# Entry
Amino acid sequence: MRAVVKFIKWLLGLVVLAVVGLFAWLYFAPPELIRVGSGYSAKIVCSNVFIAGRDPNEVLAIDVQAPGHPLLRLMKVSVDKERGLVSAGLFGVLGKSVAVARDGLGCASVPNGDTGRARQTSVHVEPLAVTVQDALWPEGERVDASQNPQVSKIIDDAAMAGTGMRALVVVKNGHIVAERFGDGFSAKTPLLGWSMTKTVNVAIVGTLVKDGKMALDSKDLFAPWKADGRAAISLADMMAMSSGLEFNEDYGDVADVTRMLYLEPDMAGFGEAKPLAGEVGKVFSYSSGTAVMLSRLWQDAVGEKAKALAWPRTTLFGPLGMHSAVLETDEQGTFVGSSYLYATAHDWARFGQFLLQGGVWNGAQILPAGFVDWMREPAPASKVYGKGQVWIEGPGDEESPGAGAAAGLPKDTYWMEGHDGQTVAIIPSEQLVVVRLGLTPAKLGYRPQAMVAALVKALHQ
# Structure
């Protein structure tokens, strides 16, 4: 009997040692997957708390844990509103990551934990003038909704709007004719556009092309590239996602895209170091790394750091009246032009209308004449993607070019698209813009084409 008791004690001791060893390993050398999960949790909670004013526990439960990787359900966050800090970790302690809020620039992931250095990259940006609330959109925020019963029926249809819809805005002939918002959200709630940010980033490049500070045929874009085949990559190649650079955009676990967003303090530097994996200009490869490098290039073209950080607001958001728009940077101060623009649905609609109008707003030619038409020309290496980071085919149609037209959409329809169901459909022939924002994972199979096609029919003149 004593031998049995002794064996059990020995076995329990081994278990305790194993648990302690496992905890020590996870604490001092956490796997990258845990750090990606904690980085994502901290960043999403931080932005939604400090930009959108949402409850952190709600954001963690609904935005982070419910739709995501099972590992995320074990993440706990801590929010320090006075210091503008959010930390997250597995059970709150393992693989901890930090995100920091900075004046005028939203939140930044701080993979190395050096929040002091992260704050040093912050540049105060004077707030944009408050829009006139009583003026009709787009000059103000007041909406004179359509009385068209067909339109109301379409946007009130849960299947048409899609699971997790947070905002729908329908713009016809330059006026909002219908809108709907999900529970807990309103016209005043800034919402993340994810990869729709890429299109806005290209428009910012366009402002510098107009000023003569950038050229689409420029090559030798980064100093290290001049020594090898990457010297042949042009700005236009990067805009068309055909640089030939290696970049894994798989969001499943730890891929290039998740490593860049949550483990790298210098996101542009991470992308810049990637080798060639295909012939320049000949192979289409969708890459968030490319979009962040474009941000670095246009910021360098602006020059002085404070001026570059203010550039999106002074040259684009301000003139368009996108008062809610916050484009976030990485720890080093490079705008995350691939993913991190928050704006209200009304402001996303303003940008869509801006594209529909060919880069003109209130009579001012903000983008070069013909630039938007160039953006939506098919990229040389793709039948479904435009030269300026817009989609010619809608969500799910990328494998079947022409499916959008077959579904009843005009042939000139093009799209801004983002992760988890963010879309802006732009149809110049119908003078129609349809914004759909929400939290709708791709696995649910939702596609907004049916709703947009129905709206085209109901509003056709």
